[in-house]
Amino acid sequence: MRITEIKSFPVEIDRRRAMFVKVYTDEGVTGVGESGFWGREYTVADAVKSAERILVGQDPTRIDYLWQTMFRGTFWRGGPVLCSAISAIDIALWDLNAKLLGVPLYRLLGGRQRDRVRCYAHLGDVSRDKMVERAKQLVGEGFTVVRFAILQDMETGILEPRPAIRRCIGDCEAVRAAVGPDIDITIDVHIRLKPIHAIELCHGLAPMKPYFIEDPVRPETPSSYRLIRDKVDLPLATGEHLAGKWEFKELVEEDLIDYARPDLCVFGGITESMKLAGWCETHHIDMAPHNPLGLVSTAACAHLCTAVPNFGVLELTWRPGVLGEVISGGPIYEGGYVRPAEAPGLGVELN
Predict the structure, then answer these.
(1) Claim: this prediction has a pTM higher than 0.70
(2) Catalytic residue among 122, 197, 241, 290
(3) What CATH superfamily classification does 107-350 receive?
(4) Residue of 190, 197, 203, 303 with catalytic role
(5) Could you tell me where the DSSP H helices lie in 14-62?
(6) DSSP per residue over 118-151, as a string?
(7) Each residue's pLDDT tens digit in the chain (351 positions)?
(8) β-strand 184-188 against 212-214: which pairing, if any?
């Protein structure tokens, strides 16, 4: 069996764009993947086209070899564009190989560690009253984890650290009061604070016992996490902006985080994420994948999170059924949990 073609399919999802990829073979078996570098999907499509020149004629069952060929096969170093293209193709290759064997993809990753995958949903960038209302709704649907973000001033669109921190603490107090002590809360800072302000925020949030604080500072200087780690007892999470395992090195090896949040569609696909999971396990770091994308991403995450031992929680932005005219199949949604489909491969197809 040989790869004959790789096609990219940009699609708009509720004012955001996604890009799906399909790998074709000379025996008619195909695989689907997704790129997560949204807003740069045509740039990634060009990178996919460049990778196609390397991969056509290759054996699609040599997944890791093809990953290395794409990553190391040019003069230039990796980055989010290249790794997003690799991610989409890698996910498609895993889908294709699981279809060849007639098994759901998680079976190729070691089998089930759990029967279902715990998820969290977003409260939205809304007023405090609407956050509380949404939190109660999600808990009623079965979610045991909810997420909200630190917000900028609604009128100016500017995030001034001190006022934003005060508001975020107040939002968390209100949500905690509404959902009670048994529901977990994650707070996303979206890399918008300096370490000194992130420390102030964490101290204010500590009484509400958040599940983790996500992306408190920018990722370019991982040592910033050391400053926070030395002053704060709350769990820290990051990873959605990182491309490839090398960018996690300092965070993992120096035990600067508690949750690794790779985006499977940016980080390097299933191949790279499985390597990260094994590495993180040796440092007592759990996986909590970033997943704001389409249902191919959700399907890939559901399979990976079913299979890895060190799993925390999965982001679930788009519920199964979204873009039904474009994608068929997908993971099975059960309140605040998902289960991977039992169909061969990912269990999703592009229509």
Answers:
(1) yes
(2) 290
(3) Enolase-like C-terminal domain (3.20.20.120)
(4) 190
(5) 41-55
(6) EEEEE--S--HHHHHHHHHHHHHHT-SEEEEE--
(7) 999 999 999 887 666 678 999 999 999 999 999 998 877 888 999 999 999 999 999 999 999 999 999 999 887 788 999 999 999 999 999 999 999 999 999 999 999 999 999 999 999 888 999 999 999 999 999 999 999 999 988 778 889 999 999 999 999 999 999 999 999 999 999 999 999 999 999 999 999 999 999 999 998 889 999 999 999 999 999 999 999 999 999 999 999 999 999 999 999 999 999 999 999 999 999 999 999 888 899 999 999 999 999 999 999 987 666 666 788 898 999 989 999 999 999 999 998
(8) parallel
Q: What totals of helices (H) and strands (E) does the chain contain, helices first?
A: 11, 15
Q: Where are the domains of the chain?
A: 3-102, 107-350
Task: State the architecture of 3-102 in CATH terms.
Answer: 2-Layer Sandwich (3.30)
| Residue 190 among the catalytic residues | yes
